[in-house]
Amino acid sequence: MPPAKRKARKTSRAVSIAEYIVLPPIPEVLRPGLDILFVGLNPGVVSGQKQLHFGNPQNYFWRGLSEAGLIPRPIAPEQGHLLWDEWNMSIANLVQRTTPSSTDLSWSEMCAAVPELRRKIRDNPPRIVCCVGKGVYEAFVGHRGISYGLQEDVLWLTRSPVEMAPPPDPAAPLPRECAYLFAMPSTSGRAAA
Length: 193
Prior knowledge:
alpha/beta; seven-stranded mixed β-sheet; 7 helices; globular
């Protein structure tokens, strides 16, 4: 009788909770007058380890920017600095804590992070705030059940606290004290599946 075959063991080890909780926040480069500020939910483990926004190669964010015509050529996460160096865009996260999955964040944790995000936006007003993922936008506005795309309300940046309300004149150009709000689907490889 032939010997029993041994099951192959995985050689890569999983990241422990203690290892990803202590990862520092990914640096954000914010300045007034950005054309677009993309707001992600939080760093995944790969992004946290690399200290890069949307750093997982399975994430579609960087490819999507190019395919949508927002940037002239495809770039890798390691070239993310080109967003603000060349194209006047940047990235922030709603929650700074690294987790393996978005399901590791509670609704209350996401909503608790909104005031700090709104402060960053007020201090560095962009023209467009684009939430990358339905959950990000829902936490940002404080309710569920939104639609994707350009939103009817705008973000009033000069009001304290920053608030959402209809634009002063929907037919006129948006005044500088307001930012358009846009909600797009998540670019996570898990969400795309």
